[in-house]
């Protein structure tokens, strides 16, 4: 077997070109008012401040004032020019940040140092949350050295074991984001372990049904194929070797994974082994939601803010459910 050369970020010729192009697009936009829920550690607060310094967002810091100011000292950032909306604890901060969006004062929501589940509980609240007719889902945008174009992966963070109805919305959310990323007719691969329909593998049945939904315009704006194994989706040669004729194979823009675990593993493999730049955003709510993590690189946090800022420019009609 041929031994693969090991690469490092310094070997790569793309030099984060996608990331820089993303920030360049945002320079034409005004900063988007963003409710930042509980930015009470140096990492989450610094991410919000840096995004503000780059003109991506105009943060409203929601949480315990004393803890936020302590975090600012630890991070070495100046928050004197930023609006601070006091809340006694993380649960109250999540509810208050969501309320700022509901009343129209903020157009984006950003996670601070609270747990994702705590924020999403408020987002999903029936009477006070941010739900729409769409299922809420997460999309990673990956800029992979040597791949040549951004790759969208969904859902690796929100929906643990999505059923067919969930996947329909997950696919449509990703297609809508691809349009914002200037991919007018994204090619969507519905992934499974095999490329043929097998009644014993539910993900292959879901893939076949999703493709038929696209034929009947229950999913719009993209070109779907599946089930496809990962190699068939990424490599036209791998598809040809297996006799697969596909408009998506080798030209894929969106990878739809069977469940959260497989998506999360795939995204992290690309980040840590392939040195991909990443951005992540949650879609399907009234506004895009920026989820950042302590493990995220600075470039990831900024790119996530940039993607969400672009997505916030979409009209409200874009958040309706896919046409039946």
Looking at this protein, list some descriptive labels.
324 residues; alpha/beta; Rossmann fold; Isopropylmalate Dehydrogenase; 2 domains; 6-stranded mixed sheet; 5-stranded parallel sheet; 11 helices; disordered N terminus
What does this structure look like?
The protein is α/β, with parallel strands linked by helices. It folds into 2 domains: 13-131 and 285-315, Rossmann fold (3-Layer(aba) Sandwich); 134-280, Isopropylmalate Dehydrogenase (3-Layer(aba) Sandwich). Helices cover 38% and strands 17% of the residues. The chain contains 11 helices and 11 strands. It has helices spanning 17-26, 42-53, 65-75, 90-102, 116-123, 164-180, 202-215, 230-234, 236-241, 260-272, 298-311, and strands spanning 32-37, 57-63, 83-86, 108-111, 137-143, 151-154, 187-191, 223-228, 254-256, 277-283, 289-290. Strands 8-7-9-6-5-10 form a 6-stranded mixed sheet, sandwiched between helices. Strand 7, helix 7 (202-215) and strand 8 (223-228) form a beta-alpha-beta unit. Helix 1 crosses helix 11. The radius of gyration is 20 Å and the shape is globular. The protein starts with 16 loop residues before the first helix and ends in a 13-residue tail after the last helix. Mean pLDDT is 90; it is low at 1-15.
């Amino acid at each position: 077997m041929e031994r693969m050369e090991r690469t490092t970020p310094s070997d790569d010729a793309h030099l984060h070109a996608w990331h820089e192009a993303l920030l360049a697009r945002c320079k034409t936009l005004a900063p988007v008012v963003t409710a930042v829920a509980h930015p009470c550690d140096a990492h989450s607060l610094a991410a919000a401040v840096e995004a503000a310094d780059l003109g991506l967002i105009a943060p409203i810091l929601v949480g315990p004032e004393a803890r936020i100011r302590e975090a600012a000292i630890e991070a070495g950032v100046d928050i004197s020019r930023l609006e601070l909306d006091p809340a006694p604890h993380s649960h109250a901060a999540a509810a208050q940040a969501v309320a700022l969006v509901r009343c129209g004062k903020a157009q984006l929501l950003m996670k601070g140092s609270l747990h994702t589940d705590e924020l999403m509980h408020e987002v999903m609240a029936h009477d006070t949350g941010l739900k729409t007719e769409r299922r809420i889902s997460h999309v990673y945008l990956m800029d992979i050295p040597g791949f040549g174009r951004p790759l969208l992966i969904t859902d690796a963070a929100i929906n643990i074991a999505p059923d067919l109805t969930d996947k329909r919305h997950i696919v449509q959310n990703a297609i809508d984001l691809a349009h914002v990323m200037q991919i007018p007719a994204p090619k969507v691969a519905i992934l499974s372990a095999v490329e043929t329909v097998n009644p014993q593998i539910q993900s292959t049945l879901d893939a076949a049904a999703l493709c038929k939904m696209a034929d009947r315009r229950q999913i719009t704006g993209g070109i779907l194929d599946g089930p496809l194994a990962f190699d068939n989706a990424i490599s036209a040669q791998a598809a040809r070797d297996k006799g697969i004729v596909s408009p998506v194979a080798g030209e894929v823009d969106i990878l739809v994974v069977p469940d959260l675990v497989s998506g999360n593993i795939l995204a992290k493999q690309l980040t840590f082994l392939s040195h991909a730049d990443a951005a992540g955003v949650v879609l399907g709510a009234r506004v895009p939601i920026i989820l950042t993590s302590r493990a995220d690189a600075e470039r990831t946090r900024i790119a996530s803010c940039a993607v969400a800022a672009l997505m916030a420019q979409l009209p409200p009609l874009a958040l309706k459910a896919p046409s039946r």
